[in-house]
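Hi, here's the filled form for the chain we discussed.

Project: internal
Contact: R.S.
Residues: 303
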Amino acid sequence: MLALQSSELEIFGITTVAGNDSVERATSDVLRMLEIANQTEIPVHIGADMPLVHEISDFAINSYGKWYSNETPPLPPGGFARKQAEAESAVSFIVRTVMENPGEITIVALGPLTNIAQAIRAESTFAANVKQLVIMGGAIASLPDGAGNITPNAEFNFWVDPEAARVTLRSGIPIELSPLNVSRKSNLTADWYERMVEIDNPLTALLKETLGKRFEQSPERSWYMYDQIAVASLIDPSLVTTKSLYVDVNIEHGISYGVSVGGENIWPGAEGAEAMPAQYGLDWTRFIEMFIERIQLPLPASE
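And the returned structure, exactly as it came back:
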């Protein structure tokens, strides 16, 4: 919603990947979202349906997320979209768009990095031609609020595909990381939600249908915001505070699988790690006010 309603961003396309749910559901929901937002001209490309290496396990089945699923996606609000995904794959689209626009394309990665890693491997000069990559992922223990949210120290997106995260972080692409550290500075309460839905438009109606249920059931609870902060930091970098760290990901299949580690200097085992700004501070009030203002803007006219 935030990206679609922000004139600073020109969206070339949206790609899907298995993450919080299956790639089938991700695709179904994105197509419907674009219809709701009256932006059906934006192409949608289907990406990876499984991580590079990570296989389904009892822990995955019994924990949050259905990245391994191939179930038929549930009906999105208002029914399945009439808009169809493109025939071109996500990886082909990503590589082609970057190579046709060298040094001009920023990628905002809000799920596991499977598609990005495959693009890096598919074209040897791809990484050198990406302008910037903003990643929602990771949790940096050396910064405040750095615990994991799927295992004690691993963040969900990186844990789903640690190998892809490692390939991507070591690629040399200019990266800004938006980890759990900054997500945990957010505080979406019922009061802020009520401000969001003060006006009626298709976006706020969708929020009422989805997010509203959470506050009906637990009105006293507050919620974190994740992907929205990554997008907002691209629109207005002054919303976040960052620290330059070398960041790497553990791909050993043990208790620290998928854990991201950040340090001010290279340490043994992380010789291939690259330095990048890692977000850890957030101007919450300015961020949430911008988010509310954007989703309440008039939508583009229907075609």
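Let me know if anything looks off before we file it.
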